[in-house]
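User: I'm curious whether this sequence folds into something compact or stays loose and floppy. Could you predict its structure so I can see for myself?
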Amino acid sequence: MTILVKIFGNLRNKIEGSNVSGALPLNMHIESDGIETISDILKKYAIKGEETSHLFVNGTYSGFNKKIKDGDRVGLFPKNMSLLYKWYFTRNEDE
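Assistant: Here's the prediction. I'll summarize afterward.
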């Protein structure tokens, strides 16, 4: 069971051994075992919440507590790539 995690911008530097240049995201297929929310993915790679600006699950603007399941696509964007989403869209969050 896997999750596709796309990591953008300077967050790619947090991933040991990543070698992506330019504007391409780092695409990783990770095992979903032990991953329940976006926060779990951030913890796995020592990414602090305040280092991120926007988080997406299957193309939907999401929050830290959004539940993740097998086959999901997760996008992680750093602060320096922030978008206007927070003013126009509500975060999809699971309690």
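Summary: The chain has a mean pLDDT of 87. The domain at 2-88 is CATH 3.10.20.30 (Ubiquitin-like (UB roll)).
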